[in-house]
Fold this sequence. Notes:
Elements: E1 4-5, E2 12-19, E3 31-36, E4 42-44, H1 66-85, E5 92-96, H2 102-109, E6 113-118, H3 121-131, E7 134-137, H4 141-146, E8 151-157, H5 166-175, E9 177-188, H6 193-198, E10 212-213, H7 216-225, E11 228-234, H8 238-256, H9 260-275, H10 277-280, E12 288-295
Parallel strand pairs: 5-6, 5-8, 6-7, 8-9
Antiparallel strand pairs: 1-2, 2-3, 3-4, 4-10, 9-12, 11-12
Helix pairs in contact: 1-2, 8-9
The chain binds zinc ion (ZN).
Amino acid sequence: MTAKTCPHCSSPANASYIAQDYNKRLTDESFHYFTCTRCALVFMDPVPGDLGRYYPTDYYEVPKTEAELAETATRLQQWKLDTVLAQAKSGRLLEIGPAYGLFAYLAKRAGFDVTGIEMDARCCAFLRETVGITVVESNDPATAIADLPGFDVIVMWQVIEHFPDPWRVLDAAAARLNPGGVIILDTPNPAAFQFGVLGHRWAHLDAPRHVLLIPVDVMVDHMARNGLDPVMLTASDYSANGFNGFGWAFTFKNFLGDNMVGRAAHLAGRVLAKLLIPIERTGWRGSTYTAVFGKRRQA
Ligand SMILES: [Zn+2]
């Protein structure tokens, strides 16, 4: 492998990881990741032409009933609604990549006027018919956003790392955000303690579905260029803490197989995550980070 050029800052980037699809085992291909020597962006190169084929048809486990949806949403995703409500109590809300709508359901129930841009047709049908939100079916959110009216809140939960050109998506979102509005996202943290220890085996590298891991400084710089300032940045919120446990458990399970040994490894991962709380929940070492950006009222 030769050195590459960083797609964000054009500085040299070094070959750093060769990973396979350890999480889903849909292919035996190897995927090469590079790390920018200047901004520390981690990116896959080359990016497969058809990323869609690395998402299994059962990627989303759509709930059977609205009652099941409501129970799962409240149990797993109340923290997302709380994060939003700390910034805005009502208005037009766009979710990019809502899947089958756990968060969208909570947001709608809390009184937001919710729109979702989603690529999965089965999820889109569920979002329209059961969740009851406005849905745009598209795998090109940057283009889809441009056709929509302005929003007060735009959320991207664990989604920006999946796009080959996240900058276009962020720019389009910033352009469609009303002055005073907020963009809220969470994404795997390339500065995570786990990534340093586990490297290419890290479950949150998730090759080949995760195309870029964006350092928080890079995210802040990019949003500033779009007229958005950070309101809240954390790598130790409910999301990060949960993903710490997930990261250890699934990495162990992936490498010991899905059997009794695998389940024991999964449990060991959960225990390890508890032991590492003093490390992973301090500094900027969590597995993911959550960022809130506010759009300036005047340029
Ligand atoms: Zn760079």
